[in-house]
Amino acid sequence: PLAPSLDTVGPLTRTVPDAAVLYRVLAGPDESDPWSWPRPVAPSEDAWQGLTVGVPEPWVEQAPASEAVRTDFSAALDRMSDLGITVEPIRSSYLEQPFLIADLIGGEVAALHRQWFQDPDKPYGPEVAERIAAALEVTLDRYVAAQRWRAGLRAATARLFEQVDLLATPTVAAGPKRLSRATIDVDGREVPYRAALSWFSALVNHMGVPALALPLAGTGPPPASLQLIAPWWEEGRLLAVGSGLEQAGVVGFVSPPGLSLPT
Fold first, then answer.
1. What are phi and psi of 191, to 5 degrees?
2. E strand residue ranges, 127-249
3. pTM beyond 0.85, yes or no
4. What distance in Å separates the CA atoms of residue 24 and residue 122, rounded to the nearest whole number?
5. Distance CA 136, CA 15 (A)
6. What does the alpha-carbon distance between residue 245 and residue 68 come to, in Å, rounded to a whole number?
7. Between 126-136 and 101-117, two packed helices, what is the crossing angle to 10 degrees?
8. Block means of pLDDT (10 residues each) for the chain, length 263 residues?
């Protein structure tokens, strides 16, 4: 475990309907899971009828994103508009730096890993050890301040969803990370890989809302990815919209070059 209030099972599937099947299996209350809620699984809803998708700024605007990612994301928004989806920019001051994610995770990481981290018979790899050592330095004051920030972020998220049905961002801000490299080249700039790869997904964890990552058809390899974010308990609508985009050819899985997957 890393941070129990955030750790989430995220299915990886070939199609959105496959993800919907896994969602129905995984979702719902479980007495043995203290993080589950006594809430029934929501049915899917019509995909396009009156749908408004917001592009959250300055979150997208300030991302360390490559020009290729921005171009593919913009093209995906245009195709969604062509399908009759209303796409509009939407702003919140809570969606700009500083994000206090590290201090929030640090408190939970320290509580879980301190006992093992100090055991010489259970060594950690150097990069993980460096991150856990930083987590052990998080003070109670910093952790409480980060909790206040997360409460404000969730309230701001609720206000955003009073204006739109879903939010859309890229899933990652740049291309893949090379093994053994601590940075990613983003159009000639060296960006720490965690900042580029988790810029969009990490904040969703702290919002506490569901999200769906969809590979964009006609991009790559590897493909660019669209992230759709729904309000609390709206997994049904999220999956329905994802399935609709898949049927329309906006998104879709393609096997990586040289890899043959069973049907």
1. -115, 135
2. 166-170, 183-186, 189-192, 211-215, 225-229
3. yes
4. 38
5. 40
6. 21
7. 110
8. 80 92 87 82 73 92 90 94 94 80 86 86 85 89 90 93 95 86 86 87 91 91 92 92 93 79 66
Sheet containing 166-170: give its strands across: 86-91, 52-57, 166-170, 225-229, 211-215
Do residues 196 and 173 touch, judged by C-beta distance below 8 A? Answer: yes
Residues 71-76: contacts with CB under 8 Å, at least 24 apart: 72/170, 72/216, 72/219, 72/224, 73/169, 73/170, 73/224, 73/226, 75/216, 76/168, 76/216, 76/224, 76/226, 76/250, 76/251
Asked if residues 242 and 228 have their Cβ atoms less than 8 Å apart, the reply is yes
Q: Give the separation between CA 65 and CA 239, rounded to whole angstroms.
A: 26
Phi, psi (degrees; rounded to nearest 5) at 167: -110, 150
